[in-house]
Design brief:
- Pfam families: Neurochondrin.
- It comes from Orycteropus afer afer.
- One of its GO terms (cellular component) is dendrite.
- Belongs to the neurochondrin family.
- This protein has about 725 residues and is mostly helical.
- Helices cover about 70% and strands about 0% of the residues.
- The chain contains 38 helices and 2 strands.
- The protein has helices at about 5-20, 35-45, 50-65, 70-80, 85-90, 100-115, 120, 125, 130-135, 145-165, 170-175, 175-185, 190-230, 235-245, 255-270, 275-290, 300-325, 330-350, 360-380, 390-405, 410-430, 430-445, 460-470, 475-485, 485-500, 510-530, 535-540, 540-555, 565-580, 590-605, 625, 630-645, 655-660, 665-675, 680-695, 700-705, 710-715, 720-725, and strands at about 605-610, 620.
- It has a two-stranded antiparallel sheet with strand order 1-2.
- α17 crosses α18 (about 330-350) and α21 runs parallel beside α24 (about 475-485).
Length: about 725
């Protein structure tokens, strides 16, 4: 085709536009557009590239001249097909005097026409053009060239149409579109606002895949948006508040971005604002709190004031929303405020390196108490028809976070709500899949339209465990929990969660919350063993629990990195064994013998003899595995020693089993090899308790201890009870 041909095409295009203005858009009698029909006929009869090009341009002009229904679009596609547009998009030789992008522009215009049909937008011939279309977004050229601008608009129309198909986002991401959109936005050339809009849609649809394919480019966009946010002085800062949560990465947010975001939020929230201005800022702050904790807030006076302001505003918003009867609750905003309250709770209970000063903590606890009161008031109004709503789940979550740290205040209100909480937890436990889905819906509602960073627990019971652990110590709340069936529910929950850690399951992929939940369940059961022993004896669920503990501990004590859970299981099992000592399962069965052998292993391996430079005598020291977690472990260890001591006279077979394990002999050997001054009095008392009961229970144990210099060791450590016991026949 020559330049003259192109000029003629241009004139024909103008003529076609005038014709479309004069002729009716649709002939009602025939149901066809006469102008378009004439051009389609010309296209079908074209004998060479020049004629086909001219006819195609006329068709394109006719398409743009008026509204075209789906059937007409399909007829255009049937007449044109993909072959010629494909050639237009990939040609490298333009006619003399013709800009090289003109042919591509026509090809893109045709694709844009076809893509307005969702079926065609998902066609393989469109999808395989994604890489080519993506390159057009960043191609250099005259920014004032109308044809080039038209091509860019058509390109965005194509890509947007593809993004709207079910599998479109995945194809766009694989085709390099995300990086191209980022570069187009950062270049701030023509259509950069369309690039941002399409990026937002792709991130909302497939965040993880977008970040996997184009993390450096997306971070560059985040840096640009954060900087704009920090500098903005007009209404654009409120628009950016709504956009920025979408661009926060699932991994680490760059420090410079956090600084800009915090500075921008501080200016916004420190001003007098209407709700439509303040709410997006609170939601952005909640997203940052959820992703980064308090790391995005600077230390020092300015940071503490900002955090106090955040929590204060969140509490006010919660009270306004939940205390006004009959008012419509903006659930997304209130749930975001819950996330900020959680941040406040964490900082108020942090002992070291807290951002808050003590007077601020006292003030915020008082403010949060009022907001939690509003949450309790709201939950008291929740009927059974609303129990599966995400906002109810979010409200239970924040209450659980509060009860994990504070149960003394609002005690009356909490006790009144306990029956509802037990029923609610039971409902979601029995419908576990819905509970997991609710968790994601809460994350979507509160924090981001995409997947949040840290995992939100997928069941209500796990949220309530820490609070219930505190409440089972108190008589009133404990009686309510027992009356409502909480112990039985907790036993079922523990057994279900334990299955996730059993052989055949990959424990490396389990979230930490599963093991933490199991440990917290053990603490609740320990409270019940001490405060309600009759319940343990009469409720059959605890027999099932005891059986699980016995069969599980032998394998658990051998696993690296799970010593704290093993300590909980061993101690709980030993305490329950004292109460259930008459059970057939504890009468020397293989399971019971395996359990006590594992419990002895846990108790006996805690301390070793360690040589000290410049001294002939070793000292008693913690084993390497125990040393790093002894602060969390020592109470369980001492309680376990006491419980084992109590089991010995109740289970006649236990003393001979302990002797076969050589624990009493090795314990005396250990004490004889270290300096008595290195053994603390509480350790001496714990060791003496076990040795005395074993010696009293079994003659062979006494003889073995005497052979191990037991009387001499008892004298050195002033173990009067042991010394007396070993002196007897």
């Amino acid at each position: 085709m020559s330049c003259c041909d192109l000029a003629a095409v241009g004139q024909l295009g103008k003529a076609s536009t005038m014709a479309s203005d004069c002729e009716p858009a649709l002939n009602q009698a025939e149901g066809r557009n006469p102008t378009l029909e004439r051009y389609l006929g010309a296209l079908r009869e074209a004998k060479n590239d020049s004629e086909q090009f001219a006819a195609l341009l006329l068709v394109t002009k006719a398409v743009k001249a008026g509204d075209i229904d789906a059937k007409t679009r399909r007829r255009i596609f049937d007449a044109v097909g993909f072959t010629f547009p494909n050639r237009l998009l990939t040609t490298k030789e333009a006619p003399d005097g013709c800009p090289d992008h003109v042919l591509r522009a026509l090809g893109v215009a045709l694709l844009a026409c076809f893509c307005s049909d969702p079926e065609l937008a998902a066609h393989p011939q469109v999808l395989n053009k994604i890489p080519i279309l993506s390159t057009f977004l960043t191609a250099r050229g005259d920014p004032d060239d109308a044809a080039r601008r038209s091509m860019i608009d058509d390109t965005y129309q194509c890509l947007t149409a593809v993004a709207g198909t079910p599998r479109g986002p995945r194809h766009l991401i694989a085709g390099g579109t995300v990086s191209a959109l980022c570069q187009a936005y950062l270049g701030h050339g023509y259509g950069f606002d369309q690039a941002l809009a399409l990026l937002v849609g792709l991130l909302a649809a497939a965040e993880t895949q977008c970040w996997k394919e184009a993390e450096p480019d997306l971070l560059a966009v985040l840096r640009g948006l954060s900087e704009d946010f920090q500098k903005a002085e007009d209404a654009s800062k409120f628009e950016l508040c709504q956009l920025l949560p979408l661009f926060l990465p699932p991994t680490t947010v760059p420090p410079e971005c956090l600084r800009d975001l915090q500075a921008g939020l501080a200016r916004i929230l420190g001003s007098k604002l209407s709700s439509w201005q303040r709410n997006p800022a609170l939601k952005l702050a909640a997203r940052l709190a959820h992703a980064c904790g308090s790391d995005w807030i600077p230390a020092g006076n300015s940071g503490s004031k900002f955090l106090a302001l955040l929590v204060n505003l969140a509490c006010v918003e919660v009270r306004l929303a939940l205390e006004e009867t009959g008012s419509e609750v903006k659930e997304d905003v209130v749930t975001a405020c819950y996330a900020l309250m959680e941040l406040g709770i964490q900082e108020c209970t942090r002992c070291e390196q807290s951002l808050l000063k003590e007077p601020q903590k006292v003030q915020l606890v008082s403010i949060m108490k009022e907001a939690i009161g509003a949450v309790i008031h709201y939950l008291q109004q929740v009927g059974s028809e609303k129990q599966k709503e995400p906002f109810v789940f979010a409200s239970v979550r924040i209450l659980g976070a509060w009860l994990a740290e504070e149960t003394s205040s609002l005690r009356k209100e909490v006790c009144q709500l306990l029956p509802f909480l037990v029923r609610y937890a039971k409902t979601l436990y029995e419908e576990a899949e819905e509970a997991s889905d609710l968790s994601q819906q809460v994350a979507n509602l509160a924090i981001s339209p995409t997947t949040p960073g840290p995992t939100w627990p997928g069941d209500a019971l796990r949220l309530l465990l820490p609070g219930w652990c505190h409440l089972t110590v108190e008589d009133g709340p404990r009686e309510i929990l027992i009356k409502e069936g909480a112990p039985s529910l907790l036993c079922k929950y523990f057994l279900q969660q334990w299955e996730l850690t059993s052989p055949g399951h990959d424990t490396s992929v389990l979230p930490d919350s599963v093991e933490i939940g199991l440990q917290t369940c053990c603490h609740i059961f320990l409270n019940l063993v001490v405060t309600a022993p009759g319940l343990i004896k009469r409720d059959a669920c605890f027999t099932s629990l005891m059986n699980t503990l016995m069969t599980s501990l032998p394998a658990l004590v051998q696993q690296q990195g799970r010593l704290l859970l093993a300590a909980n299981v061993a101690t709980l099992g030993l305490l329950m064994a004292r109460l259930l000592s008459t059970s057939p399962a504890l009468q020397g069965t293989p399971a019971s013998r395996g359990f006590f052998a594992a419990a002895i292993l846990f108790l006996s391996q805690s301390h070793v003899a360690r040589a000290t430079p410049g001294s002939d005598q070793a000292v008693l020291a913690l084993s390497p595995d125990y040393e790093g977690i002894w602060a969390d472990l020592q109470e369980l260890w001492f309680l376990g020693m006491q419980a084992f001591t109590g089991c010995v006279p109740l289970l006649p077979w236990l003393a001979p089993a302990a002797l076969r394990s050589r624990w009493p002999q090795e314990l005396l050997q250990l004490l004889g090899s270290v300096s008595p001054t290195s053994v603390k009095p509480e350790m001496v008392a714990a060791y003496q308790g076990v040795l005395v009961e074993l010696a009293r229970a079994n003659r062979l144990c006494r003889e073995a201890m005497r052979l191990q210099a037991g009387e001499e060791t008892a004298s050195h450590y002033r173990m009067a009870a042991l010394e007396q016991c070993l002196s007897e026949p």
